[in-house]
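Case 334 in the screening queue. Each case pairs one protein sequence with one candidate compound; here the compound is threonylcarbamoyladenylate. For every case the pipeline is the same: read the inputs, emit a complex structure as tokens, and attach any notable structural observations.

Predict complex for case 334.
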Amino acid sequence: MDTKRLEITEKNIAHAGNIIRTGGLVAFPTETVYGLGANALDEDAVRSIYQAKGRPSDNPMIVHIADTAQLADVASEIPEAAIPLIQAFWPGPITFIMKKTPEVPMTTTGGLETVGIRMPENETARALIRAARRPIAAPSANRSGKPSPTTYSDVLEDMDGRIDSILMGEDCKVGIESTVLDLTGPVPMILRPGYITKEMLENALGSEVQYDPALMMDPIARENQGDFHPKAPGMKYKHYAPKAQVRILEGGDQEVQAQMEELKRFYHYQRKKVAVLDYGRDSRAAAKDFFARLRELDREGVEVILVHALPEEELGFSVMNRMLKSAGYDVIHV
Ligand code: TXA
Ligand code: MG
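Case 334 output:
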């Protein structure tokens, strides 16, 4: 299949909308990461997303809408807490889990009665949804297990020849995937941390928000507990793994830097190509840069990536969630 490269013009967006409506796949920019879109209401189209990504079929898709008028097409019940949250954060980098309508096929939700819904802020993304006149199911546009793509060339690296077309938009300004918030229980629960943090949600709601306990568990405790079931099925798969080995160093700045120097020497003796990622305390910069950098370092043939841990608070907690996964939870405490 020849993947059509589309510049962002009105005509091309209309064309891409047509591709979606007729069952095809279009990769498109959002403010978080690039998405791989298909008509969310068309089972066959959604099945071809799983195929193109090589994704396990029990991993549900996020359904993207362009305006609140579309919400009733996909959600059968709008929980009360959704009202202030939609007001505060949509369009934007947050996905709300609600009960689905019968029109949303189980193929889209990975067999669940609930559906993740997001209204992206990116103008091209919303223009595409309007042009398709359909809600768009879209996971991140990477091959399953690889770092999420935050530029159109990262998408092409994984998907060229596997999808109908790509809208070649801007680089993603957030750089990590949306916060996933479950609104179907008594207390809103964060299933995947993202740019919109627990603190921001609690401020907008004026009440408590919880983390999925699975997010807080350390990985060893998690492995020992045979029945580990995160509520977002996608969270259990190996994720964001570059070819290089990623190692996280945690501790005081000076101690970490000294340890990094020592490890660099050690790997140089082994003739291994090493890179260091140190964002200081700047979790915003880390979010925007991290996935793109993993891919870049892979292209450069780097074999070991040493990452200085971020403070695990607010956005830093969300970025560390991605960093820890990419490292397979290999953390050196110094
Ligand atoms: O920022 C984003 O959310 C990007 C862009 C393209 O919008 N999309 C994205 O999709 O990251 P994906 O498929 O890579 O991740 C979706 C996550 C998975 O962890 C999945 O398990 C969870 O959301 N999820 C989706 N629907 C769910 C549901 N009904 N219940 C629980 N978790 C759900
Ligand atoms: Mg993904």
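Case 334 observations:
- Residues 30, 32-33, 35, 59-62, 95, 97, 109, 112, 114-116, 118, 138-140, 177-178, 180, 191-192, 231-235 surround threonylcarbamoyladenylate (ligand 1) (CB under 6 Å).
- The mean pLDDT is 94.
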